[in-house]
């Protein structure tokens, strides 16, 4: 169970970092973000891309909260971890069907699946005592 917990911690931390960096990049430079994704920047796209960046930044913050709460053994952390994974998984068909970008859809499918599996396996059977023990070992 420690391996699953540590894997969940690592994936949540990495996901939060990725989401925050992508969010900041979209807000700070929408045209650059679009160019980096090989998408054409058109008039009127800057505002939606900025809002997408804000949404991505919020998802990154929620993922960071999920990391903190799972390390504390709070059931809410597991819920947020699963919620984050599901939102990433749900974006995959949108990327494929609406943007016709199978490479982005595959990336989200893999990332969401990798996060969802340990989030489902790391159960909070006894109030998170095992997870708190793992977190406590890290603090020593």
The major β-sheet equals: none
Shape: elongated
- Rg estimate, integer Å: 17 Å
Q: How many DSSP H or I helices? A: 6
Number of strands: 0
Mean pLDDT: 86
Q: Alpha-carbon distance between the termini?
A: 20 Å
What's the structural domain tally? 1
Q: In what range is the share of β-strand residues?
A: under 5%
Secondary-structure-based class equals mainly alpha
Regions with pLDDT < 50 over 5+ consecutive residues? 125-129
Fraction of helical residues: over 70%
Order of helices and strands: HHHHHH
What does the model show?
- It is built from six helices and no strands.
- It is mainly alpha-helical and 140 residues long.
- The protein has one domain (2-139).
- It is elongated.
- The relative contact order is 0.15.
Give a brief outline of the structure.
With 140 residues, the chain is mainly α. Helices cover 83% and strands 0% of the residues.
């Amino acid at each position: 169970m420690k391996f699953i917990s540590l894997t969940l911690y690592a994936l949540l931390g990495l996901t939060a970092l990725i989401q925050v960096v992508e969010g900041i990049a979209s807000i700070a430079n929408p045209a650059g973000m679009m160019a980096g994704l090989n998408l054409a920047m058109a008039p009127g796209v800057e505002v939606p891309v900025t809002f997408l960046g804000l949404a991505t930044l919020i998802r990154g913050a929620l993922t960071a909260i999920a990391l903190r709460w799972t390390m504390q053994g709070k059931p809410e952390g597991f819920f947020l971890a699963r919620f984050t994974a599901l939102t990433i998984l749900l974006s995959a068909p949108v990327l494929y069907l609406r943007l016709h970008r199978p490479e982005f859809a595959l990336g989200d499918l893999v990332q969401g699946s990798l996060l969802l599996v340990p989030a489902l396996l790391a159960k909070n059977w006894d109030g998170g005592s095992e997870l708190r023990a793992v977190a406590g070992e890290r603090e020593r």
